[in-house]
Structures are given as structure tokens and as C-alpha cells.
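Q: What would this chain look like folded?
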Amino acid sequence: MPLSNLWQTQLEAQRRGIGREIHDVVGSALAAVHFDLSWLARQPPRDPETAERLASAQAALQAAMEATRNAVAQLYPPDLSEGLAPAIARLVADFGRRTGIDANFDAADEIDLPSPQQLAVYRTAQEALTNIARHAQSRRVRLTLRNEGTDHAVLEVRDDGLGFMPEAVAAQTDSFGLRGLAERARAVGGALDIVSHPGRGTAVTLTLPRREAP
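A: My prediction, written as C-alpha cells:
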């Protein structure tokens, strides 16, 4: 097995293991809290402050359960059986529904990539959208997937958000998201480029070969 494939396989196995742990341990704990809060809500009326605190706890719990479901869904391997473009289209549509951000995706008619490259493209789109939701305060996001000549494919993710200084973020020891994207690109023989300026949005570009890396 090529080293790039082995790296991808190991990384996906780790993500799947973390997803199971979150689902089984954190999900079960949240479900138990939900059961107890629901029981309390059915008890005889209580003073207004207690009722208000109970309602606040239920709302916070619901948000935590939704965040947990989203985290597990992101960690599990994507379904690419229908093709890369349809999978990213679903990802972008779901992102738009969840965040309210105007999100669009355009793809070339034919994007023919080996499985490791497809997974790298999907995970890059996924991580870029996650970063946008967390940090960018964007109104619009545009993703494009296109062929570049006969040898390469390009994924571009652009937003109109706050922007940042890539050099400063790369120097941070806890910038795992950007570092992970760059490592994933290199593992399949590709390259990641990030262009951003404060107040002027961000463009993340993944360029990768349309063949498996040795």
C-alpha cells in the first residue's frame, strides 16, 4: 500500500474511533441528563426562578446534543459512493441550512480522482467550512472544484468573512486545523495555499494530482 494511502487509512481509523467514543460516552451521558431534566420538567409547578433555570439547562443541553451529533457526523468517513461532487454538494447544502450562510458549490462536469485524492478533497472542504462557521463571520461562501489541465484538480473555498494573517496562525502551536489540512494535501502529493487578509475574507486552495501519490 502506498504511504499516502496508509496515512489516510490510519487517520480515518483514528477519526472513526474518536467518533465512536464521543457517540458512546458523551452521547450516553447527555442522554442521561436529558432524561433527568425531562423528569424534573414534569413535576408540579415550582417557583419562577427554578423554572427559568430548568428551561435554560434544557436549552443548553439541546445545543450540546446537536453539537455532539454534528461532531460525530464529521468524524465518520463520508459516503462517496455516488461521487465526490454530489457528496460535497450535500456537505455545502447542510452547512448552509445549519449556519444560515449563503453557501454555493460548483463542480466541473467530470472530476476523475483516485479514492485517496477524493477523500482529501472532501475533508479539506469539510474542515474549511468548519473553520468558517467557527471564526469567519461570513455572509457568503463559494466552493469550486475544477480540473486544471489534464494532470491536476483544484478545490477552492472562498468566504467574505473577517479574514486573518495566515503566517500568525501557522506559528501558533495549537493551529491543528490548518496544519492538518496541509499535511493531508502533502500526503496525496498535493499542495494547500491559503490567502487571507483581515477584513477581506479567505481563500483556501487545494491543488492535487489526478493520480495516486507513490
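The chain has a mean pLDDT of 81.
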